[in-house]
Amino acid sequence: AQTRMGRALFFALFITLAVCDVYMHNPRGSNNRNRETGTNAQNQNRLFDSQNNNKGGYCWGPPMTFYSGSLLQIEWTAQHACGASHPKVDCDIILQYMCSPDLRDGLTTDTITEETVSEMEVDTKTGEATWKYGMHEPFEFFEKCKERQRNVGLFIADQNIPENAKATRTRQENNNDPHGFECEEERDYYPYWHPTPWRDIAVLTSNTARCSYYKENSQNSAGKFECDLPQYNNQDECETNSGTWLLERPWGIAAPECVAGAFSRDNHLGNSKTGYTSAYNWIIPDLSDIGDDVQDGHARCALRIRYNISTEDYLGYAHLSEEEETIDSRFNGEESPIRQNPYVGYGSDSDDYEWELRLALNTDQLARTFEDRSHMFIIRPRPSEVPDTTRIINLNVRGKRGNIVQAYPAVEYDFVPNQLTINSGDFIHFQWTGCDTNPANYAGEGTDGTDRSNIVEILDQRHNYPFTKYLEFDQVTMFDQETAFLMAHLNQYDGKVCKIEDETDCCKTREQLEAAGGNVNQNVQNCAKINDPKAAYFDGGLHSLSTGTYNYMSTRNNNFSNRSQKGSITVKALLPTWGIVLAAVAAAGFVIAATMAGVVYYGQTHAGSAVGGMVSSMKL
Fold it and tell me: How far is residue 586's CA from residue 594's CA, in Å, rounded to a whole number?
């Protein structure tokens, strides 16, 4: 049962005070960009409050589709360090997703309002009418937030926020300035105490002592309460004013995974100690877990990363393993242990004069949330011919057009996962998307402003020619010939080659391109440079590769000594050679082991099932 709690301390304890520049690279994080062509994102209030540098983010590309139960490698960089037992910061990386039939990217960079929720506009690229404004959280969620009194039990230091201010104002964001339909209080504190449309995936923390609390209080498994009179934020005031304290039932899915986060250094938007970008492998949820947010057999979803860091100048995090008093509203104002840009004494001279130093400390940032979100993607059921016990691994492309300086804080092109090791029988979903509105004159190949990628097989990672420089095309090993041709040329213009020089909607020959004049590399009918305007998104389908190691690159972007876009895939047999020899005498045992592997994978991807319950109790 929900206990009655006084207003002053209403859920002020055990709340993560969320803090740093964070950029999602796979799937492509928007940082509030849409289709604008400028160097910086045009409107940082478009969908959410990122707090990031405006130069970050990837412009819009056609949405990708992920199959239920497939594995997606989420990648990001975070500027101010993180990781288990990090000596400089206390931090959490929180991964979440939400789905809604009304979730959309929109066409404009302007911020949605209540009046423009349903406004439509024709997309000039497709000729079809679509929503004009982007939206993640529904307006009903934001409406409750802007009417609800803020949680006055929270620590706000010396910031001046009236008690009667709404939940759209927090210590970090005190301007009452809407960012799409995001609720500032929900964004800044985790886990939130009222219902949220976001489902939790994982928490990667520097202090695993917090994990049990996160799991128990995630909306995945714990119901959340709110008043039907939305101005009241606690049960006492709600019922005193004739309201009803309503329970929003939990999502009914597995609690988020909570593990020690990987180490990353401070003042650095780069790789972790592994030499690769910080990453988490997410199993795409089943549509049954998404429930009412599924429409027409698929779900429209977005991914969210929150990067929370804190300081030990005050107890911004609850020390759950220690008996220490967590800071709350009792320490606001004159009682605050931190001050805005304070002067501090640091020694006295021979005349007993105390010398001071001034610190650069902003009390609305000394515990601060940075955030990024993906563009919309689609979740569909896996193809009927692929059993639930068979793994599907998503292989995507991260990065954007430009040299390393122009692209920063985004990254240059690469494949994700870059070095992939799988088992025989696993499927790979080859799929990527790109943008046509990168800033003009950014370094890159093909038509200016465009992202494109393809795959050709190479002999090894040190080669920069396709294998056809040394072997015949029919000696391809990574794919069959038809698939290899598709992956290289992407079915541009439906495979049509121009018959005459003036023909359009087809791939021009080299002679026709030269006769047309101008910059051959910029010509949209130059299919050798992957310039077809419709090739921004490519779905190569599901493929199961034979055992072996395969190396590949993109001819569009790989440019030795400028940028590298290469990858490798190793497919291992389910049994080593000696195991195959013994298989004849241990066939029954192998069948059982293979069956158990399938059962375990099914359980992990169907956490709400009876099998899922059994697997969750197993130590694997």
Answer: 12
Q: Structure tokens of 102?
A: 């009304």
Confidence of residue 34 (pLDDT cuts 50, 70, 90): very high
pLDDT score recorded for residue 242: 97
Residues 66, 285: contact at Cβ < 8 Å?
Answer: no
- Cα separation, 32 vs 134, whole angstroms: 10
At residue 318, the pLDDT reads 52
Taking the C-alpha atoms of residue 118 and residue 344, their distance in angstroms, rounded to an integer, is: 54
Handedness of CA 163, 167, 172, 177 (dihedral sign): negative
Assigned token pair, 366 = 């000394």
What proportion of the chain, given as a percentage, has pLDDT over 70? 88
Beta-carbon neighbour count of residue 273 at 10 Å? 11
Tokens of 370: 């940075």
Q: Which residues pair with 80 in a beta bridge?
A: 266
Closest CA to 389 of 541, 259, 582, 574: 574
Cβ 498 vs Cβ 525: under 8 Å: yes
CA contacts within 13 A on the Cβ side of 460: 1
DSSP state, 211?
Answer: H
For residue 227, what are its two tokens?
A: 């008043």
How many CB atoms neighbour CB 187 within 10 A?
Answer: 25
Max avg pLDDT among 11-25, 81-95, 122-136: 122-136
Amino acid at 435: C
Which of 470, 492, 467 lies closest to 481 in space, CA to CA? Answer: 467
b/e per residue 297-335 (b: at least 16 CB within 10 A): ebbbbbbbbbbbbbbeebbbbbbbeeeeebbbbebbeee
Task: Tell me if 607 sits within 8 A of 253, measured CB to CB.
Answer: yes
Q: Give the span between the Cα atoms of 48 and 30, in whole angstroms.
A: 10
> For the CA atoms of 55, 57, 61, 62, what is the dihedral angle to 10 degrees?
-150
The β-bridge partners of 104 are: 135
CB within 8 Å of 503: residues ≥ 6 apart? none
- What pTM was estimated for this model as a whole? 0.90
**DSSP state, residue 213:** H
Q: What residue type is assigned to position 619 of the chain?
A: K
Per-residue pLDDT reduced to its tens digit, 458-504: 999 999 999 999 999 999 899 999 999 999 999 999 999 999 999 99
